[in-house]
Known about the structure:
Structural class: mainly beta
Strand content: 35-45%
Number of helices: 1
Number of domains: 5
Shape: globular
CATH architecture of the largest domain: 7 Propeller
Number of strands: 65
Amino acid sequence: MPHYSRWMWPFVSRVRAISCAFLIMLTELLLPQPSVATGTWIALNHQAPNPIDTLLLLPDGTVMGACGEQDDGSIGTNWYRLTPDSHGSYVNGTWSQLASMNYPRLYYSSQVLTNGQVFIAGGEYSDTNAFSGPGTTNAEIYNPLSNTWTVLPYIGANAFDDSSSEILPSGNVLVAPVSPISFGGTLIWNTANNNWTAGPDLYRGGDEDEASWLKLPDNSILTIDSPVYSSNGSGTNSERYIPSLNQWINDANLPVSIYDTVYDEMGPALLLPDGRAFFVGATGNTAFYTPSGTTVKGSWAAGPPLPNSSVSADAPGAMMVNGKALYVFSSSVYATDNNFYEYDSVANSFTPVSSPSQYTANQVSFAFRMLDLPDGTVLLSFGSQQLFVYQPDGSPLAAGKPAINTLSTNNDGSYHLTGTLFNGISEGAGYGDDAQMNSNYPLVRMTNSSGQVFYAQTYNWNSTGVMTGTNVVSTDFTVPVNIASGNYSLVVTANGNASAPVTFAYFPDALHIIAPSISFSGIVAGPFAPSSISLTLTNIGTAGVNWSVGNTSSWLNVSSSTGTVTPGGPAATISLNLTAAANSLSFGTYSAMIWITNKNDNYVQSRAVTLQVNPVQLVQNGGFETGDFTDWTLNGDGYSDNFVDDGSYWYIVPYSGNYLALMGEQGFLAYLSQTIPTTNGQIYLFSSWVNSPDSETPNECSIAWNGNKLFDKVNTGMLGWTNFQYIVTATGSSTVIQFGFRNDNSYFGLDDVSVTAVTQPVFRSASQSSGSINMTWSTMSGLAYQLQYTTNLTQGAWSNIGNPINAAGGTANATDTTASGPIRFYRLILLP
């Protein structure tokens, strides 16, 4: 939605309220029924508890739906879950209420993360009919397993207003706010580190108001610049974000205009099965984009005009399993006479589709949402309690069919799948800046001999791309709780296209182990947390089970070594804690294994245990928690221009703790420095958090390591708390870290400065199978690693294998599909 002028608002408010309250309208006009229909609409048998205007597919096969706009026109926080029935039918599925968000929001960024959680950021509206409120200034994470919402760190007012988003190859999320903390800038949510960092500025320095983003097969993100901020004001400029460069680059110009000239709206962007991008516009124009696959510009061509002089403005579209696209069009921007069409890219033509039988007229297009379901249908909502699914005709596209290569067991009781096309050949459904409902991630569906359907919980998929071709990708999954033992037919689905089935033999032992993530962490010599971790043993069989526990690690203690559990009887608890030997370990990641044996049948189950020993923090008073500059050297006036504050003096609150440094030297740079002990040749992670609450100039900010400038920017714009991280190497027994700040009319904030030692990655294993090689190496949590190869060590030209991998534990792995030809040499690059 655009930001309307004042005279327009009463009309728009009325239309928006009607869009979520159509059940009480007196007029129920059915749209004209086209004579040709290629698919079938089916109404869900159970209505949602409230009107639904947001749709997201969770990795367990259920659907999250939100009603941001209530029947009374107010904006709420309610979310609901649609669960398919025992045969996998969403038509017969049931609704249940989920935990509510912390803040109301409407039209916002949304992504399902690789860990299965849901990321929500900002909103065009938070309070009724207002472009402001708490929902526009923050982001939240939803955990489906615990049914809880967590508010993410606050980064500044109006940071996420009307924002677009995309998940990156690293699993992080790129967001482009309309009223950003840095105008024309972007933000990146780092899932592993649980923090925000500044992303690259857009190529033209504007914002992405009303823009539709689209992920291409090379993982770049394509956008058409808003006409408000494009260089020629026509809205025919395009640019792309290149993840490997972390940079927006200029791309080719469009031959036609996609944005309308009154409200600056456009329609969705979808990736076609032939690899071209297809944008539909609020002008009635369409455009094809053919990617280059590199940083070279692609090419644009005009597409067919929308049928019957229709337009697509803030409206959804969905790629279907048969390779065709489903759309909703209207006669003009914000008109209520919507009609449905299929687009066939092979025939390059639109075909009208009948409307759902219970669909009522007078719905504006921005109330509609579509979502690709794992059964091959498309779910439709339009601000109503009544939802529909569209069953496309024909067969699933062979080019989009996933294939399963291997299925194995992890040592924590979960399972690991490898194969191809687990992400599908498109992102699924699309809309634009007001909503993202990507579903290009694998779901696992299991069917028993009686036809009962179960969805596993997938997570840790190693690709977030599209059209991954023959590249081997993977996902982990856990089976549903209390699922019966037996043989299952298992498939992987991607945007509704299912793989060929494989047999999944699930025969769990009577000794059932309930174990959280078994991980301890702390600094060298301790202390470590948590103090203890408990495993619960239950008996799901019919006879008593005697059990025993084995452990060979010197730094791990197991409280009980043997015991008995009876069916339906009390559970047994095993406590794990660290021994004194843990205090003598140097920094790094340590792994151990415990074995739990069912002594009745000698079935052994193992569980991995991780100990993360972190290096000692070298910076003293890095968070300024002494309330002053103790341990720091300040070269400035030290009082009115630079001082430590509790957040009450200026518009910056501490990033963490109770204090922060405010730096506002006038006329020249003031330097804040500290000399820290280092080891010659040792690699370190140098991290700090910087905030600039406004765009007052002149200003300058610099960061240096032992005299070498790592960052230096003049006239920084608005910048919420941003993490600056650098991988650096010491050249002596001591090193000077230094910050330089000048801000003539405002202040910079500085907090949480740290320097910690980093271990070099070391290859641990390499195994070759079926034309591919899998490599495992040691890691440190929170760091990123890039695997590379070369065929000639003398030329120094290295190529990336896949995307950077964020470490969440002590090891990481990647697979390279080897081809016939020269021998390959491999190396690992540590990334900041």
